[in-house]
Design goal:
The chain is mostly helical. It is built from 13 helices and five strands. It has a three-stranded parallel β-sheet with strand order 1-2-3, sandwiched between helices. The longest helix has 30 residues. Bound molecules: adenosine-5'-diphosphate (ADP). Adenosine-5'-diphosphate (ADP) binds next to helix 1 and strand 4.
């Protein structure tokens, strides 16, 4: 490993991973996991705030593992595991709750957004950032690669780490104060309906959509009604916003020129995009099919990741219990 940084990041299995997740987070995760000691975990406790269907939660969780492995995650380089295989995080979350001002959670932008979208305002959703803090701190995380939408939550984590250290271990701090690594500061990629692509809006193109389903979704991307022969502004179009993710600089320039020249319709752009998506993920799709046929191997990867994660978590929890005064009469398992 090149330095002492510990990278941690959770992936929520609340639906099928989509192109927004890929370009906004996963691609960077895959790049980072080989360079630094990293813990990537599938946050199924978090997903429970919105998914109350056991079969769906199991499927989404395993799909995330398959997606990451198919997209190039190398389990010999870093750990990939299920959050529920480290249940100590819920214990740490409880301890952190006792240090969390309610006023801070009341300002939670993500909570307000989700409730505004119609999700039920349950206490899990409200307290989501504290479990996230526990997830980061329990592995001694120092760097958290996240989208700009997560900045506020990382600030809560930083506050909690500092407050824990001040309150319980002023002379020998337990937790490093983690730094966010903001990925793609400005880019928010549109979904089929032109709003932010999000599992919550049912407007996504999944990374592993293919065939008819992929075609149907690409063809359904909302465009304006400028006629085929008229010049078009590529920067105002949802199809072009997605093309930009896949295209080489030259391709991007050529297609933008074609938009501006007129005689190039949105249908042409959609065909181009469809081909780009298919080509980009073709080899990963094949790899995913192979992995899906070997579920035991995928479980082995998650088991090995969980064993490493438990070692790191137990180290920190030992110190947490010691410094908070939580007695335990039972021997440690
Ligand atoms: P969703 O909105 O689909 O539930 P998440 O909130 O789980 O997605 O997203 C996890 C990460 O994926 C975000 O922090 C961000 O980095 C990235 N991401 C998700 N949607 C988009 C998008 N439309 N554009 C850019 N990045 C995105």
């Amino acid at each position: 490993m090149s330095d002492e940084r510990v990278i941690v990041s959770g992936i929520q299995p609340s639906g099928t991973l989509h192109l927004g997740n890929y370009f906004g987070a996963i691609r960077q995760h895959i790049d980072l996991h080989k360079q630094h000691r990293s813990f990537y975990f599938i946050v199924n406790y978090h997903a429970l705030t919105t998914v109350h269907d056991a079969e769906a939660l199991r499927r989404y969780s395993l799909d995330v593992a398959l997606d990451y492995l198919a997209l190039g995650f190398d389990p010999s380089a870093s750990s990939l595991f299920l959050q529920s295989d480290v249940p100590q995080v819920t214990e740490l979350a409880w301890i952190l709750f006792t240090l969390t001002p309610v006023s801070q959670l009341e300002k939670g932008v993500a909570f307000k957004d989700k409730v505004a979208q119609g999700l039920s305002a349950n206490a899990g959703l409200y307290n989501y950032p504290v479990l996230q803090a526990a997830d980061i701190l329990i592995y001694g995380g120092t760097v958290v690669p996240v989208g700009a939408d997560q900045k506020q939550n990382i600030e809560i984590t930083r506050n909690l780490a500092a407050r824990f250290n001040q309150t319980f271990a002023p002379d020998d701090p337990v937790f490093p104060i983690p730094e966010p690594m903001i990925l793609d500061e400005v880019a928010v990629f549109p979904g089929i309906d032109g709003r932010k692509m999000s599992k919550s809006y049912d407007n996504t193109i999944a990374i592993f959509d293919e065939g008819k389903q992929l075609k149907k979704k690409v063809m359904a991307i909302v465009t304006d009604s400028t006629p085929l022969e008229a010049p078009k502004d590529p920067e105002a179009d949802n199809v072009f916003a997605l093309i930009k993710l896949f295209a080489t600089p030259e391709q991007k320039q050529d297609i933008a020129d074609a938009y501006r020249a007129g005689g190039y319709g949105y249908g042409h752009a959609k065909k181009e995009l469809l081909k780009m998506i298919s080509d980009r993920f073709e080899s990963c799709r094949e790899r995913r099919r192979e992995l899906a046929a070997r579920p035991d191997d995928v479980m082995d990867v998650l088991r090995q990741g969980a064993a490493e994660a438990n070692r790191a978590a137990n180290h920190f929890m030992e110190r947490v219990r010691e410094s908070t005064g939580l007695l335990r009469a039972l021997p440690r398992s």
